[in-house]
Amino acid sequence: MAIPHLLVHEHKDNVGVVVVEGLKAGTKMLGVVTHDNSSFELEAKADVPIGHKVALSDIKSGDTAIKYGEDIGKFVADVAKGGHVHVHNLKTKRW
């Protein structure tokens, strides 16, 4: 199996985590769902640093971000499938 670019923990997650250095826009990422070791492909729409998130589908402002099967915050901007998800478009619900 090839080395994945993106890890997702649960099928209900709507973001995945980049696990390689230097991911560039246009890369056909190999994603792996760790829950069952299934895989998928997704094109990166932006350069994304290691450890940052990528949208697994088109997401609307106000939607809840799901990572590790858990609510991790609220989107404050629309994000296209394959787009970079970070502090510029995702905020905590804690405050």
Summarize the structure.
Helix content is 0%, strand content 38%. With 95 residues, the chain is mainly beta.
Low-confidence stretches: none
Shape: globular
**SSE arrangement, N to C:** EEEEEEEEE
Strand content: 35-45%
Counted beta strands: 9
Strand order of the largest sheet: 4-3-1-2-5-8
Textual characterization of the structure:
- This protein has 95 residues and is an all-beta fold.
- The protein contains no helices and 9 strands.
- Strands 4-3-1-2-5-8 form a 6-stranded mixed β-sheet, with no helix packed on it.
- The model has no long low-confidence stretch (mean pLDDT 96).
List keywords for this structure.
95 residues; six-stranded mixed sheet; mainly beta; three-stranded antiparallel sheet; 9 strands
Architecture blueprint of SSEs:
Blueprint: E1 6-8, E2 15-18, E3 28-33, E4 38-43, E5 53-55, E6 64-67, E7 70-75, E8 84-85, E9 90-91
Parallel strand pairs: 1-3
Antiparallel strand pairs: 1-2, 2-5, 3-4, 5-8, 6-7, 7-9
